[in-house]
Write a structure and sequence with these properties.
Elements: H1 68-120, H2 127-160, H3 164-191, H4 199-227, H5 232-245, H6 250-268, H7 271-293, H8 301-338, H9 344-350, H10 353-365, H11 369-390, H12 395-417
Helix pairs in contact: 1-2, 1-4, 1-5, 2-3, 2-4, 3-4, 3-6, 3-7, 4-5, 4-6, 6-7, 8-9, 8-11, 10-11, 11-12
Length: 419
């Protein structure tokens, strides 16, 4: 909505572009102007003007408090589950198979974690929460799968009317595994709500959880291929081709569908809505997982015409989410600029990828790269704090956080300029 007439509650009208995208929709009753900077608008533009783009192709923190209890509780779960998982994997692979599987599994894991790094660069999530997510996937969700799948199969298998193998591939494994992985996402949302603040964060955490799960699963598959026949090298190569080359992002894409749904629910802030979103988000995850498990039927046509388009669609969705996130950041910072906290040139720098790259290049040229990096991250956190305020979620606490972050941004600007 864009209006120049006063609202019925007496508040000023929504400014132009208050809702820059579908990701950052602001209910009219929740909108409030950014607090004014009574110390005066910053005089210096940092860095100097961004150069015009050339025709050549360019080559290419959150506070420490939130989520600490979740991390400690996760550590307890890991120690409780580690014995079960290690015992199961070693019993199926042997020591030599475990070692081979562990090393081979590092390669697909690296591709998933690289994707996490790229997606998460705009607003990095706390490392302790990413560690929690990874270990949840690699240990806790595997243990839950081992514990829950037998009773689920016993209860639902006969009623399904499917043979044992078909039931396991199309129903039992998808349902139990996606529930176990996504439960970690739900815990992150409920107990680290400040950091799980949108669909992009949901994708980042989902990729990390799924990367951990796939890592342990790959150790099992690669190790079993090594120790289970007289031609271990060929067997490992075949399994690696299928899991490490053709589908390293399979689990990540499944779980990311739940993460996106939870991320949108997080914007509303209702715990009940988040629980409903958890259930709703499991549906596409289970369907995608079940579809993938049947890819061996009519292979390679099913892989080429079903799984490849799913992968391409997932990439496009992530790109769209990132672009919407960038637009949202830029709009919220423009509102702070209108209140005197930034210059328009700074908003252009902070709100675009090209501007950030130029800012870091300039800061490094004068020996202040770390300070500029901290300034960029603090400004992004500030923009997302404002979005939480406008969503109507925990407004007094978020406004207190906003006050501290505004002071931090001003201090970091001075650190870059050394005034």
């Amino acid at each position: 909505m864009t209006s120049h007439d006063p609202r019925p509650d007496g508040h000023p009208p929504l400014p132009e572009q208050a809702n820059p995208s579908w990701m950052g929709h602001v209910p009219e009753q929740n909108y409030r102007p950014a607090p004014a900077n009574y110390a005066g608008r910053p005089q210096a533009t940092l860095p100097p003007a961004i150069p015009a783009p050339s025709s050549r192709r360019r080559r290419g923190r959150r506070s420490a408090g939130g989520g600490l209890g979740l991390f400690v509780a996760g550590a307890v779960l890991v120690f409780a589950d580690l014995f079960l998982v290690l015992t199961f994997v070693l019993a199926n692979t042997g020591v030599a198979g475990f070692a081979i599987g562990f090393v081979a599994s590092l390669l697909p894991l690296g591709s998933v974690l690289l994707a996490v790094y790229v997606i998460d660069r705009w607003e990095p999530e706390p490392k302790r929460l990413l560690l929690f997510a990874f270990v949840w996937g690699a240990v806790v969700s595997v243990a839950l799968t081992l514990l829950l799948q037998p009773p689920f199969s016993l209860a639902a298998g006969p009623a399904s009317g499917l043979d044992e193998q078909t039931f396991s591939e199309t129903l039992a494994a998808p349902v139990v595994e996606e529930f176990a992985k996504s439960l970690g996402l739900l815990l992150l949302l409920l107990f680290a709500r400040k950091h799980f603040d949108g669909p992009v964060a949901g994708v980042v955490f989902a990729f990390t959880v799924a990367g951990g799960f796939a890592f342990t699963e790959n150790v099992l598959y690669f190790g079993r291929a090594f120790s289970g026949s007289g031609n271990p090298a060929t067997n490992v190569a075949v399994v690696f081709l299928g899991r490490g080359v053709m589908s390293p992002f399979a689990h990540a894409i499944f779980t990311a569908s739940t993460g996106v749904v939870l991320g949108f629910a997080a914007r509303r802030g209702s715990t009940g809505l988040c629980l409903l979103a958890f259930i709703a988000g499991l549906v596409p995850a289970v369907l995608l997982h079940s579809s993938f498990n049947t890819v061996s039927q009519d292979f390679p046509a099913r892989y080429i015409f079903v799984q490849v388009p799913i992968f391409v669609a997932a990439v496009l969705v992530i790109v769209l989410l990132r672009r919407a996130q960038n637009r949202l950041t830029r709009q919220r910072l423009q509102e702070y600029a209108a209140a005197g906290w930034f210059t328009s040139a700074e908003v252009q720098m902070l709100g675009t990828g090209r501007g950030r790259s130029w800012a870091l290049l300039w800061a490094r040229s004068i020996g202040r790269g770390p300070q500029m990096k901290a300034f960029l991250r603090a400004a992004t956190r500030l923009a997302f704090t404002r979005q939480r305020i406008l969503s109507g979620r925990d407004v007094p606490a978020q406004q207190l956080d906003e006050k501290h972050q505004l002071a931090k941004v001003a201090a970091l600007r001075d650190a870059v300029l050394r005034r």
